[in-house]
UniProtKB/TrEMBL annotation, chain A:
Role played: Heme chaperone required for the biogenesis of c-type cytochromes. Transiently binds heme delivered by CcmC and transfers the heme to apo-cytochromes in a process facilitated by CcmF and CcmH.
Domain of life from the UniProt record: Bacteria
Keyword set, alphabetical order: Cell membrane, Cytochrome c-type biogenesis, Heme, Iron, Membrane, Metal-binding, Signal-anchor, Transmembrane, Transmembrane helix
Gene designation: ccmE
Residues passing through the membrane, by range: 12-32
Keyword Heme: yes
Membrane topology: Single-pass type II membrane protein
Protein known as: Cytochrome c-type biogenesis protein CcmE
GO biological process: cytochrome complex assembly; protein-heme linkage
GO cellular component terms, A-Z: plasma membrane
Chain ranges on the Extracellular side, renumbered to this chain: 32-152
InterPro entries: CcmE, CcmE-like_sf, NA-bd_OB-fold
Length: 152, 256
């Protein structure tokens, strides 16, 4: 077998290095799935309930028809769902503009002693669909409202 | 629309790409191409952003805020694309030891850093009214910040050593190792729970309404041409700098 020229050796080594790096990135994506998650879904919480008082981020969709206010209007109550499990949440503070039913939300807070999730911070998620309001209205009229039934 | 021929560039006609590796021929090619890239890039970018700001419809959910998309998305794409280009240039410099490849690494790094910074800044401004926060440490935002820091690291390493060739070599290693981050940026929003939403444009199609997609693609084409134009400007500057240095050295040798 002919001995490879240094240039060819370097090429093979460099390409191998690049391939290994990209592969490492892809492996990291799968390996860090739990560690790198920014929030926990209601079904994660149902499977592994956190201790009362432990701060977690809860994420999912705002369940349709679940949004309400307390009698004095200061506390916002809603349910976060991932279509498998639901977690009721209470929040007192400024609500982001994009907060609405069937859209994503991330609530930072903890469970109180009675097992109710109290959020200290509320962030709104939005999905990857961009469209004019008329189109969204037409979709809703035809029975396909945006956000309904899709996991975040 | 027809564009005049760029001038006598035998390298373009010949199938042999090696011809472009000749620095003198590259100089001529770059000199002819640079103004075209800059002017067309600015034109497409202006038209794309203009149409995005004044003619595209508002978003059903975000309203007018969505218009920052026309700057944020193109800068993100080419911050990442530029990084891949820089890593490939570093790889070529390592394998073939061609001076133009090493020069490309030096030329791309600051332009890529600029695009990554634009992406981070516009993203932050966009995040405040929509998500309700300027910044979170989720997978996408963090990996994009890492991309920006990798660019800064490559720039710092280039200038880190008295022996320029050694500094450049170390910068090249970092550029190649940093490609690890590219699949993480891309797939963070698909595989990890993030505040940032998944990609709107995929192989299977786009979930951006055509009236919004068209200005976005125009703007993106402008950003791409502008990126290439700025890199060529820098490459020409770096070549000129090297010539000046060599001339000064020759003069010093003669005087000594």
């Amino acid at each position: 077998m002919a001995v490879a020229k240094p240039k060819q050796q370097r090429l093979v080594l460099a390409l191998a290095a690049l391939a290994v790096m990209v592969a490492a990135g892809i492996v990291a994506i799968f390996a860090l799935q739990d560690t790198a998650a920014y929030f926990k879904a209601p079904s994660d919480i149902a499977a592994e309930p956190p201790a009362p008082g432990q701060t977690i981020r809860l994420g999912g969709l705002v369940k349709a028809g679940s949004v309400g206010r307390s009698a004095d209007g200061l506390v916002l109550n809603f349910t976060v769902t991932d279509m498998k499990a639901d977690t009721p949440v209470s929040y007192r503070g400024i609500v982001p503009d994009l907060f609405r039913e069937n859209q994503g939300v991330i609530a930072t807070g903890s469970f109180d002693a009675s097992g109710h999730f109290v959020a200290r911070e509320l962030l709104a998620k939005h999905d990857e669909n961009y469209m004019p309001p008329e189109v969204a209205k037409a979709l809703e009229k035809n029975g396909h409202p945006m956000g309904a039934g899709r996991p975040t | 629309m027809r564009f005049p021929v760029l001038g006598p560039i035998p390298a373009m006609a010949a199938p042999d790409l090696h011809a472009l590796a000749n620095p003198l021929r590259f100089q001529r090619f770059a000199t002819a191409l640079t103004p075209w890239l800059l002017v067309l890039g600015l034109a497409f970018m202006t038209v794309g952003i203009w149409r995005g700001l004044f003619f595209a419809p508002p978003d059903y959910l975000q309203g007018e805020t969505v218009r920052i998309l026309y700057i944020h998305v193109p800068s993100a794409w080419f911050a990442m694309g530029g990084y891949l280009g820089m890593a490939l240039a570093a790889l070529a410099a390592m394998v073939w030891k061609h001076p133009l490849a090493a020069l490309s690494v030096r030329a791309i790094a600051p332009v890529g850093a600029l695009f990554a910074a634009i992406c981070l800044i516009t993203g932050s401004i966009w995040g405040r009214p929509t998500w309700g926060t300027w910044w979170v440490w989720d997978g996408r935002l963090t990996s994009m910040l890492v991309l920006f820091l990798l660019y800064l690291g490559v720039i710092a390493l280039i200038h880190s050593h008295d022996d320029k060739a050694r500094g450049l070599k170390m910068a090249g290693y970092l550029a190649i190792v940093g490609t690890l981050n590219l699949p993480i940026i891309k797939f963070s929003v698909e595989k990890w729970n993030t505040l940032h939403q998944p990609a709107s444009i995929r192989l299977s199609g786009s979930s951006i309404h055509p009236d919004m997609l068209q200005p976005l693609l125009l703007s993106a084409l402008g950003f791409l041409l502008l990126f290439a134009g700025l890199v060529l400007v820098r490459m020409r500057t770096l070549i000129a700098e090297q010539r000046l240095e060599m001339r000064a050295m020759r003069r010093a040798a003669r005087a000594g």
